[in-house]
Amino acid sequence: MIISVFNQKGGVAKSTTVTSLAATLTKFGKKVLVVDMDPQANSTLGLGVDDESLEEDSTIYRLLKEQRLHKNLVEGIIMETQYDNLHLIPSDIFLSDAEIVLANAMNRERLLAKVLKFVQDDYDYILIDCPPSLGLLSLNALVASDKLIVPLTPGFFSSKAIKHLLTTVNRVQDNLNSELGIMGILVTKYDARKKDLNAGLPSKILDYKIFDTIIRIDSQVEYAQENMMPVPFYNEKSKASEDYMNLAKEVLADGEK
Ligand SMILES: Nc1ncnc2c1ncn2[C@@H]1O[C@H](COP(=O)(O)OP(=O)(O)OP(=O)(O)O)[C@@H](O)[C@H]1O
Ligand SMILES: [Mg+2]
To answer: What would the mean pLDDT of 1-11 be, rounded to a whole number?
Structure first.
């Protein structure tokens, strides 16, 4: 199953969710590929890979640009991480050129989908980290995905931005990927002390499910990030790790439906 973690708003824990969920799914015996579609390379770094030290043309950008793709080429870009069953297609800052360079490419929205076709059967889950924008990179992620997880921080629920996000998803469903579904909306960085923000938490947004699991705010996430590790490997007993464990159970249950 290919899942994009998507929200055009910045800082809502997309990258944290990608690396933490990926880490947790491997603890359930799943084989996972993380695809970093964000030039900020936060999920690349979060899995212990220094984007500054990557060689030229060794990122997802190489594959998006390639007109004659084949499986060996895709496998050549996939990196092992220091964690079992957790692989990565990294990104670096040069991926930001893609928005312009690939703007006129043939089938420019389907470039990532074509890349992943070669390897999707090799993994139980492919998790895509999206940039905080609605450009070509995010569009490619949405077209390549079966499902979306939409992280949201409390206080963001009634905003125009969420309506805009859902309109975008609907447009992709109508025109580019009719199979795309929203697995759920995920409340992140939840702070029980901020009662005023939490009061606005609905149980559904339009018709979309909100995961039962709420990811609590936890300083261990930042310590993990400083150590370039997913929090479930950095501190298994932390609140955030416990929450991502519960999220993984919901994600696994969704796959069995
Ligand atoms: N549960 C949490 N508790 C505390 N801090 C968190 C938690 N989740 C994420 N953060 C912090 O919030 C910041 C933003 O998280 P993250 O980078 O995952 O968001 P993002 O949506 O990927 O951001 P961007 O839109 O820039 O890609 C980071 O500094 C991260 O450490
Ligand atoms: Mg991010």
So the answer is: 95
Mean pLDDT of 111-122: 98
Q: How confident is the model at residue 197 (pLDDT cuts 50, 70, 90)?
A: low
Predicted TM-score (pTM) of the model is 0.96
Beta-carbon contacts of 22 under 8 Å, excluding residues fewer than 6 positions away, are 32, 34, 47, 86, 125, 127, 230
35 C-alpha to ligand 2 centroid (Å) = 12
Q: State mean pLDDT over 82-107.
A: 96
Q: Name the CATH superfamily for 2-256.
A: P-loop containing nucleotide triphosphate hydrolases (3.40.50.300)
Q: Ligand 1: which atom is nearest the Cα of residue 7?
A: 21
Closest ligand relative to 234 C-alpha: 1
Sheet containing 32-36: give its strands across: 79-80, 86-89, 32-36, 125-129, 2-5, 147-152, 181-190, 208-216, 204-205
Pocket test for ligand 1, best of 221, 223, 227, 245 (most atoms within 8 A of CB): 221
Q: Where does ligand 1 bind, in terms of residues with CB under 6 Å?
A: 10-16, 38, 40, 42, 132, 188-189, 215, 217-218, 221-222, 225, 240
Select the more confidently predicted residue: 222 or 191: 222
